[in-house]
Predict the structure.
Amino acid sequence: MTAIEPDRVVAVVGTGTMGQGIAQVALVAGHPVRLYDAAPGRAEQAAASIGGRLDRLVEKGRLDPAARDAARARLYPAAELAELADAALVVEAVLERLSVKQELFAALEDIVADDCLLATNTSSLSVTAVAGALRRPGRFVGLHFFNPAPLLPLVEVVSGFATDEAAAERAYGTARSWGKTPVRCADTPGFVVNRVARPFYAEALRVYEERAADPATIDAVLRECGGFRMGPFELTDLIGQDVNEAVTRSVWESFFQDPKFTPSLAQRRLVESGRLGRKSGQGWFPYGEGLAAPSAQTAEPCEAPDAVGLHADLGPAAVLREMIEEAGIKVTRDRTPYVSEGFIGLPAGTRLSLTDGTTATGDPSGAYIHFDLALDYRSCTRIALAPGADADPDDVRAAIGLFQRLGKQVSVIGETPGMIVGRTVAMLIDFAADAAGRGVAGAEDIDTAMTLGVNYPGGPGEWCGRLGARWAHHFLSTLDGAYPGGRYASSPALRHRADLEAKQVRS
């Protein structure tokens, strides 16, 4: 896989945060780098800023002073676009507007050599559309870095409809030679990360809109039960509500308003109010000196039961039996007839069961309390419970005490189908399966992109292998019944994988 030689010039057009970051990556990798910005003086300012970043790397012991000096000597601010004529690669990081990018690359095509690779860092526009104005679109690729580019390892290498395979391979090899972890993907709305990640935000927003839980509690459950690095509300406040909502809307519109990608009205209203997150001092949460972090709703201590019954297998939560016994609570076998799904029997007769996409109320077989999915029940530190309307209050307290005895904090939330982690993980599995099934990227690359690009605690493909495609398909089918309209309908790829699993079980 041939990378661009380190002595060849790399040019970066656009000197905002992302442009500077990309330039720094290429510079540290040994390339001469030329910076260009249409605004007079911006390239010189960016060069000075990059020099300051290199100084800080030296101070932290991450860069040798001699390497810093050599890198500075290779950095050239360009006053005219024509000064990029000898570049082997030009990466664009300008305004996310199709016409602006098309005009830029049309001008570059008249300046650079025929073997120069042209790349856009767009996160929301079609690579195919940007290249549409070029005479030779085969050498055009997407190189989508993640912010901050010098720190985050992932680069999505995007092939447009007309991209030559050799150009994509050269871009991939170059990103890898820069110390990045590239993944190949097709030109689809959102590419890999921004396409597959939509449910992480969307499901949390839906739970909030249904008033089942507040933002701080939803964030805490996804962090402390699901294992995600940040919750979706704090993360969108960090990204910027306007930025996150714009990406969601762009992907939705690009998919012809597919209900799976429908934006949130609550987030739209937040943007319209000017509450954009950290940058405006207020988003889902307030920000400012002396303000305490928002706190999740957490149940007061309750007494654990001395004994519980166990009916059938708890599926993804099967380890709870061992944990309950290890905590000194007696587990007896529950012989309730005509019930195939596993549950924990509580003292007053209420059944404690893993969420399956339904709500706890209305099951004719008895009173239920649902608990949320955890990707690792031993390491998680919080569990969400959703009692049905007919759950015995003493059993609600017993369920709280049971999980507290297991070392978990407990958030009692309102009823919502699939609760929080369960519905989020099932949807992420489906979105990843759909992307792989449609050839957007390979399953392994999708998992790599989601773990490195957005710091997920694992890849959706790995979760599917562990939980089972049949589990995810059944979960989503139940949600689809609760919310008709197609948002929760399993993708053909997930249904196919679930059918294969079923055949393997029968054989």
Notes: Residues 186 and 440 are 5 Å apart (CA to CA). The radius of gyration is 26 Å. The domain at 307-412 is CATH 3.30.750 (Transcription Regulator spoIIAA).
